[in-house]
Every structure is written in structure tokens, then in C-alpha cells.
Amino acid sequence: MEHKKILQRIKKDFKTKLDAKSKAIKILKEKNKHLELQFKLVSKELEALKVGNIAPKKKKTTAINKPSKNIEHKDYLKLMTFTQENSLKRRPNTVHYLKATFILLYYTGVRINEVQQLKIRNIKELINNNTTTIYSSKTNSYRDLYATSKAFKDDLIRLYPEIDNADDDSLIIKNSNYSGGEIARVAYTKTVNTQIQTALNSKDYTSHGFRHSLITRLSEHGESIEAISQFIGHSSVKTTQNYIQTSQNKKENLGKLV
């Protein structure tokens, strides 16, 4: 009786393995058919290319983004005024973070994705200590932001009149729907750029125009390229040189038109 049970178990195991093997063979055959079909299609395309029946596929080219126009002081003032005058069309929290973004972009040249990382602690340090340290994910390094300008401090104080009572770890850029929630980077960038382009009535402007403008101003005031590079947070002086060279070329081209 015991032998009979063992034989039955062996038969059952054998059948299970046989079924599994048959299934595997079937899958391999299907894959083989698919590969054969793909091979035939590729062969036909190659043959057609040889006789010139079809044109070879063109390589995809990466679109080059047009550089943003510089956002000068008059543009900054116009942008802040526009944001205030149209504040009723947006949630109060959105208006507040747009103003904070424009202030920080104009005076520090900070990258827009770095603004999203800033907390109330950083604003307090800028107001009270004239400087704060931030981490840049782009360059994988820490750098300092400075608030040596009285106008910069005044703008921050007006925007954050009760900052001493605010939570140090609270983000300055929050989602309008959820308290303390972080805004998706793409949505935040789009909102900021749309506001800039609407206020300045041109799609030639983006948030990067603040950064380019600050580099130009520092260069025109005689600051060394090394100092500007460190101030703006570039990992290489060559990058800073490219910004300055672009600005010089624009001026030269304008001079030719006069």
C-alpha cells in the first residue's frame, strides 16, 4: 500500500514537471516566432534601403531652449506691482509665495528649484544675520546667500512681518491646498514663469532671467569673475564667463544698430 502511494506521488510529480516543461517549450516557440517575424521585417527594411525605396530615419535632435531676457530692476518692480494688483485672482498663499520667489530670485540669483528648498529659518537668517546657507542639488554642494542690500531686507520684512512667530522648519513655498505641503516642481515653475510672462507681456522672459541679470549687474560693477561665480553658485568659472560673454555680445550687436 505504501509503495502504491509512493508510485502515485512519483507519477504526479513527473506529470507536473512534464506540464511545466511543455509550457516552457510553448513559450520559447512563441518567442522564436516573434523573433523570426522581427528579423524578416528588419531584413525587408535593409533591402529597401539598398535599392533606395525608402529614406533612412532621421536622428532626433534635441531642442535648444532660447535664453531668457534679463529681468532688470524696472521689470522686477513691474512684476511685484502686477502680482499685488491681481492678488484677488489667486489664493492668498499663492500670491505670497510668488512675491517671495521674485524677491529671492532678483536679489540673490538663486535657482528656482533652490527656492523651493528654503525654509522660514533661512529667511530669518537673511534678515538677522545677512546670510544663510543652502544646499544645491544641481552642483551637489552648499553655498551661501547674502542679504547685504537694505532694499532686499526691507522687501523681506514687509513680506514676513510676523516671521519671529513662524515655525523655523516650515517651507516658504507651500501648496495652496494642503498646509505645509510641497508643490510639485513642474507646477511651481510653470506658475512662476506664467506670472512673469503675463506681467512683462512677453514669452521671452523666464525665472532664469533674474539670474542672468544679476550676473550682468555684478560684472558691470567690476566684480571679478571668480567672486561672481562663487556668489551665484556656479560649479565652474567657465559657466559664469559664458553668461558675461553673452551679455557683452548683445551690447555689441545693439551698438551696431545705432
Keywords:
single chain; about 260 residues; mainly alpha; hpI Integrase, Chain A; 2 domains; two-stranded antiparallel ribbon; 10 helices; elongated; disordered C terminus
General description of the model:
With 258 residues, this protein is mainly α. The protein has two domains: 40 residues; 174 residues, hpI Integrase, Chain A, CATH 1.10.443. A two-stranded antiparallel ribbon has the order 1-2. It starts with a helix and ends with a helix. The C terminus is likely disordered.
Strand order of the largest sheet: 1-2
Largest sheet: 2 strands, antiparallel
By CATH reckoning, the class of the largest domain would read Mainly Alpha
CATH fold name of the largest domain: hpI Integrase, Chain A
**Pairing-aware structural class of the strands and helices?**
mainly alpha
Radius of gyration over C-alpha positions, nearest whole angstrom: 31 Å
Number of domains: 2
Strand content: under 5%
How many helices does DSSP assign?
A: 10
CATH superfamily of the largest domain: Intergrase catalytic core
CATH architecture of the largest domain: Orthogonal Bundle
- CA distance, first residue to last residue: 111 Å
Order of helices and strands: HHHHHEEHHHHH
Oligomer: single chain
**Helix amount, in percent?**
55-70%
Shape: elongated
Low-confidence stretches: 251-258
